[in-house]
Amino acid sequence: MYKHFVRFEMNEMREEFIAPCGMNCRLCMANQREKNQCKGCRSESDIRYKTKGSTSCVIKNCPVIQSYKSGFCFKCDKFPCQRLKQLDKRYRTKYLMSMLEILDHIKQYGMDAFLQNEEIRWTYKEYGNIVCVHKLICVVCKTPYIK
């Protein structure tokens, strides 16, 4: 019935899925679909995974961010830049998440703590499925997300 989406196992939140802006690509509809699945912007050393959106993404392609080992916006002297503020506003309004809060959490507590928090926040324990942040449902079982 739900053959077009990938069912994820627990502990699928990994650092390579956290974009420079703080987006958890594991929660993205494009990552959860089975056909033409996006692997996230950090996986794009392989040309097969380059997406139109991330190729033109001002944040991902920022030369300042690319020069830092961590590759996260919070390292930048201009943090938060105007583009990141706009993205944060859109995600706060539409998707119940904040890129600025995510980046502050990673900076303050580290990646492991952030990933553990994401696992708890965005996984349906009954089914082991990950919520789609863009639809606020489980794309496998269609259960609505309740914060």
Q: Topology, please?
A:
Layout: H1 29-32, H2 52-55, H3 63-67, H4 82-95, H5 99-109, H6 111-122, E1 123-124, E2 129-132, E3 137-138
Antiparallel strand pairs: 1-2, 2-3
Helix pairs in contact: 5-6
Shape: globular
* Helical run tally: 6
Could you estimate the helical fraction of the residues in percent? Answer: 25-40%
Biggest sheet architecture: 3 strands, antiparallel
Roughly what fraction of the amino acids lie in strands? 5-15%
The low-confidence parts are 1-11
User: How far is the N terminus from the C terminus?
Assistant: 26 Å
Q: What is the strand arrangement across the widest sheet?
A: 1-2-3
Q: Structural class of the helices, strands and pairings?
A: mainly alpha
Q: Measured on Cα atoms, how large is the radius of gyration?
A: 15 Å
Average residue pLDDT: 80
Oligomer: single chain
Q: What is the H-and-E element order?
A: HHHHHHEEE
Characterise this structure:
The chain is mainly α and 147 residues long. Helices cover 34% and strands 5% of the residues. The chain is globular. The protein starts with 28 loop residues before the first helix and ends in a 9-residue tail after the last strand. The relative contact order is 0.18. The model is unreliable at 1-11 (pLDDT under 50).
